[in-house]
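Box S1 | Example of a co-folding query
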Amino acid sequence: MPEEKPTLDHEHLPTKLGTEFVGKFYRLLKGTTLYDRKNVIIDRLIQECLPVINSVVQSEGQLFIKIVRDNFFFNNIRIFVKADKYAIFKAFWLEMRRRWIGEMEFSTEVKGEHLKDFVYLLSGLEENNESNYLYVNKQLEYQNIDSIHVGKLEFFKDEEIYIDSEDRKKYSKEVYFKSIGLVKEVVESINQQKALNIRKAKRLMQNAVNAIMQDDSALLGLANIKNYDEYTFNHSVNVAIYAIALGQRIGIPKKHLSHLGMAGLFHDIGKTRIPKEILNKTGKLSPEEWLTMRSHPVIGTELIMRMKEWGELSTRMIEGAFEHHLRYDLTGYPRLTRKRRLTLFGRIITIGDFYDALVRPRVYNRFPYVSEKILGIMLERSGKDFDPAIVKVFINMIGIFPLGTLVLLNTNEMGLVTQIQEDTELMDRPKVCLLYYSDGEYRKGKVVDLREMDESSEDFKRSIVKTLDPNEYNINVAELLI
Ligand SMILES: [Fe+2]
Ligand SMILES: [Fe+2]
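Box S1 (continued) | Returned holo structure for fe (ii) ion
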């Protein structure tokens, strides 16, 4: 497969065209799940997608898109997915994967009606049927549409794939709670000066990488639920998850992602040596106590350096432990005598750590649950505390209404955000599971898509008015969401 190195992003034509096509086509495909084929919105989506396809066919003779593992090839040249387009590619990838379709080809110019037939055909396919592609091609032939063809998705033996979304959820949940168990074990083994089970940690982080690469919503959802009892253990796991998901979006290769996860998991390892009275103190810390608290990055670094069996991995882990409070402009702690730039791992973990530490539902938390506010603070401090480029990717990833947010709708209904929108322009329109009150508690109702339009008024059916604090309503988000 010929591969070109991108010069400047905007000059790489296949990436530009491929990104445009995937964006428009994905929107259209999603539209078919919300509206029937007579709806005006569908016509609009068709009219947006058609010129993209036809102009490529005109200039290049064809439009051919192929998925190989998690890469996209556009007319046989690999697309370099930019971070802000990542979510849409991922969502498109998932839709295709579910249907076992790995290739799409437009060989001549397409008519709007034909594109419509094709996209409804695609959208109506059953999940997880390997011979879907044969069915589609046959149907196209039958309907005399000879400009479009599809091909089967190639699967590779080493790919651990969960096509079914329930299976993926189960797998993610297992990884999450096993990781928490592991962090507990680690804390104990450090307190008792025993050796750490490094292999187990590595394996778990590889599993987390696998789960996140397929669909990061399940693990991000678990990380976003902040009302577990044992926050300390969750924090380490959450930071690892944010780091892996973020690392993936900025293009860190798979083999390094599990190292990034490890660095996230152990970034606060130095806290195991900080007295409990200081760690758990709810009131203000005295200057001496602050000093002790602020020594945890250095203590963590020392602890990691002592673990000889970790080999080269320890260098990466030190980056997380030592740098996560340093800040992008190095005004944090520990104070450095010689200025240098933070490492990439350090910059990533700083962001996950800050966010997770602020959204926790604790008495001394000044901003519980209001993720918007925290993301705003992060944006404000971008370039000072945080790497500006990575902050932008992080905000895209979390969304303005993160998974598990309790929201009030303009219909006076209450609901939980269960899926954030891949499309950055529609970030304020996630999928929401409505809640209803019966027998003294809130229960799950149907899931609604806030992108859904009301046909008569041409306005959205439901919109978010504001976020609510689940504690005020006695709602256990974790229980309802997972
Ligand atoms: Fe820390
Ligand atoms: Fe931390």
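Residues 1-10, 362-367 have pLDDT under 50 and may be disordered. The chain is about 50% helix and 10% strand.
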